[in-house]
Design goal:
The structure is a homodimer of 294-residue chains.
Chain A lengths: L2 H19 L8 H11 L6 H11 L5 H23 L8 E2 L2 E2 L1 H26 L6 H14 L6 H11 L6 H26 L4 H28 L2 H4 L5 H4 L5 H5 L1 H18 L8 H12 L3
Helix pairs in contact in A: 1-4, 2-5, 3-4, 3-8, 4-5, 4-8, 6-8, 7-8, 8-9, 9-13, 9-14, 13-14
Chain lengths: 294, 294
């Protein structure tokens, strides 16, 4: 299948949905809504919502439910990027090729825009269409856990920040990757499955797929930071090494990192064999994550 | 009734519950959990959880449910204080008499501690004991709306920040107070009612009580900023005038502000006449809010 065309089409749909689900720029107080929209529409591959859609659709889930779920997750992902980019954290001036939220709206508004996107995410999850109350609560539970301090996104970010400039061993690096980016990527496929009524073994397969793809994604991210230009990445390349960040290439070298990412992608594809034809997008997405150059 | 003794007893219970519901300081990654606990246990009257308890108990709600609800709301309140105190926002060094979170843990950890407390709040609301899934979702919906950008806490904070040093009229001041602090205070009594199975007219009464008490609380807060010392308040007094913040005393003078707060408190008490004896704590709390000196 043509994964690039598939992703482009899904991305357009997701962007339309995000536009529908965010307050308009004219809505009072306008500044915060402009800041939220600025960061949401500043580019991005929409990998997380696409994973949620692909996972849910391979079990026959409803498109509108999955679009809202994916959009809500994209909001929480964008909140984390806005806060991570702040001067007190990673101090990044560019993201996805354009100035970061605090560079355009100031630090105060960027902090509040991040807060708002997280809040908006939960507002949307409460009213996901076409689901039972029990499934809605399960999804909120999963999203909150995956973005929290214990084995979740914030926990990973804390350990990542605290590890800068220090020697990081394999166990710690795995913790950072698994928590900081892996947990939310896994939530995409798990909640896509939950929203489509997945049975336990199906959910387990989607979880393992998400875990393996999530770790592969992060390893490739680390590799690209070394091998690509800032122009291509849309953010400052080589930054990991500059701040002595814990990365796969720093610990294992580029070749071993590529090999490991390839193995993880193959394992992810193996996990979803049971879904047959309908999982073709998930397979193609796993390969895309390996072969991407941005 | 002895409202001071009532509040002290409730406060002890709430603090024990908060301790139970927050990850221990030894939990990896420890820094973020220390920062979360530092701000939660840095003092505070626990007015919001006490309002939720008093509202729910006057309808026979379960103590454990209401304690968890109140604790979750206190976490989201504390997140907002941590972020508001940051250098990019109100730049406050002291809160409740002790150094603010970013003064102790640095800005990065303070931003993440705020994010974590909001996230933890939703984790707790999902699993509130003794409620139906539908009521749990209603409570999450209310909390998210009250803390969001449209007529909610973040919206109020944005307008407040943008109004500094400008002439603010009555309409705008009302918007700031209603959104920035009023919405979350109203949620306490409303969700206390929802958790206790309130019927529509009971919920309406608790909502009006919350609205009036919430506005009175903010007016008294503005008055105390003018009349009390920093030592007594535990934060920098006179700051509102210094940054030309929109306040009731600035717009109406102290006497008219006191009168208005008194009227609102009486109206709040009038709203809950229907509840009889069991609403005595709510009545005493309304009077306490008027007469407090910190």
């Amino acid at each position: 299948m043509d994964i690039i065309a598939y992703m482009q089409e899904r991305r357009r749909e997701i962007d339309r949905n995000l536009d529908r689900l965010l307050p308009p720029e004219t809505q009072h107080p306008a500044t915060i809504h402009r800041a939220m929209r600025y960061s949401i529409f500043a580019g991005g591959k929409r990998l997380r919502p696409i994973l949620a859609l692909a996972a849910g659709e391979c079990l026959g889930g409803r498109r509108d439910t999955l679009l809202d779920l994916g959009s809500a997750i994209e909001m929480i992902h964008t909140y984390s990027l806005i806060h991570d980019d702040l001067p007190a954290l990673d101090n990044d001036d560019f993201r996805r090729g354009v100035p970061t939220c605090h560079r355009v709206f100031g630090e105060a508004m960027a902090i509040l825009a991040g807060d708002s996107l997280m809040t908006r995410c939960y507002q949307l999850l409460v009213d996901l269409p076409g689901l039972s109350d029990s499934v809605r609560l399960s999804i909120i539970r999963e999203v909150a856990a995956a973005t929290g301090t214990i084995d979740g996104m914030i926990g990973g970010q804390v350990v990542d920040l605290e590890s800068e400039g220090k020697d990081v061993d394999r166990t710690l690096l795995d913790y950072i990757h698994r928590s900081k980016t892996g947990a939310l990527l896994t939530v995409c496929t798990r909640c896509g499955g939950l929203a489509a009524g997945a049975a336990a073994p199906e959910l387990a397969a989607l979880t393992e797929y998400g875990r393996n793809v999530g770790l592969a994604f992060q390893i490739v991210d680390d590799i690209l930071d070394v091998t690509e230009t800032s122009e291509n990445l849309g953010k400052t390349a080589g930054k990991d090494e500059q701040v002595r960040k814990a990365t796969y290439p720093a610990l294992y070298g580029l070749d071993a990192s590529r090999k490991r990412a390839g193995e993880l992608v193959e394992r992810a594809i193996g996990e979803i064999g049971r879904f047959g034809e309908r999982a073709e997008p998930l397979r193609a997405l796993a390969r895309f994550i390996m072969d991407r150059s941005t």
